Amino acid sequence: MSEFDALCANDGDLADLRVRVRQFVAEDRDRFGWEPAIDSWLTSWDAGFSERLADAGFVGLTIPTEYGGHGLGFLHRYVVTEELLGAGAPVAAHWFADRQVAPSLLSYGSEEQRTRLLPGIAAGRLYSAIGMSEHGAGSDLAATATRATRTEDGWRINGTKVWTSGGHRAHFAIVLARTSALDPEHRHAGFSQFIVALDSPGVTISPIVTLDGHHHFNEVTFDDVAVGDADVLGEVGAGWHQVTAELGFERSGPERILSTATLIIGVIKALGGQDVDDRTAAEVGDLLGRAMALRQLSVSVARALSAGEDAATRAALVKDLGTRFEQQSVELCADLLEYVRSEQDAARLRAVLATARQHSPMFTLRGGTNEVLRGVIARGLGVR
């Protein structure tokens, strides 16, 4: 396979899958009237869309058929994700469960957990949040203070998680907690993961409303929340290893380069309907060239995951370079928007630009700050 063919990600049955997803999205938007959005994987929650998407066969692609999924590979999910984000589709409801929780259950979950949770995830009807970040422990997860204490019949969890996307709508959260005393010489030891129902007694969910008035972040407090042994995910004490693998799925996907896709595509389409000067054409070419280079890196990670390879370092690199590109693309598009002559197109795109500017500061924070990720990359390359 040539490098160009690999970049296209249309080999085998991927091209047919791409066409089918594109058709579904166009028809669903025409019928239900949703509008393409910036950052749709984080902010655009539409349970009905997630259910229809799953019924069409486009959720749970990497989940084995015995658990209600489709038994396909990460490249299949990559293609579906790319088409959905390029269209700004409202995918937030099922996003975290399908992207992170399902692979974690398949890697570390018990058979009972897989049987209980995976069919609902594949059906687009079971929603999950991720309980990692805390006050004072955002990107430095080793500073996590939430604690799980052993009891006669399970565990008691106490602590607070913050920036919990979709926590007010999710059915459960995967919570990282310390299960043994801190060892200053081994800060990453002694963590475990728990599957916690968010309607459990002792769980308090408080909204965090962003400057644009939207509520998708939350602060989640756990006050003596009882969790049984059946809801320990993986091995007690192996939480750090598990969460590091999980972050690979979070950091490497096309959402790290396509959060602003609706703005970029909209501006280029508007300019495509008119004559432009050489300078404008060069700026468009630079924008697309950078996007294509990042996409090539992101596709390579998807291919590595499909082959069962460790892609943690490359995933961190995708997230670092991709989210910086997303931020820079906002102002690049703002400059290009000045050349759009259609006032109707310009007015519509200015509204999209305003939303992109509000979200831009978050791009390099979520999933680990870029400064922390550069340390991950350096260690992965053998630098100490």
Description:
This protein is α+β, with helices and mostly antiparallel strands and 384 residues long. Helix content is 51%, strand content 14%. The chain contains 14 helices and 8 strands. The chain has helices at residues 3-8, 14-32, 40-43, 47-55, 74-86, 92-108, 111-122, 239-252, 255-258, 261-272, 278-306, 312-337, 343-363, 370-380; strands at residues 128-131, 147-151, 154-161, 172-178, 191-197, 203-209, 215-227, 232-233. A hairpin with a 5-residue loop joins strand 6 (203-209) and strand 7. Helix 10 (261-272) packs across helix 12 (312-337) and helix 12 packs across helix 14 (370-380).
The SSE string, one letter per element, is HHHHHHHEEEEEEEEHHHHHHH
What is the CATH homologous superfamily assignment of the largest domain?
Butyryl-CoA Dehydrogenase, subunit A, domain 3
CATH structural fold name of the largest domain: Butyryl-CoA Dehydrogenase, subunit A, domain 3
- The number of strands is 8
Strand order of the largest sheet: 1-4-5-8
The largest sheet is:
4 strands, mixed
How would you classify the helix and strand content by structural class?
alpha+beta
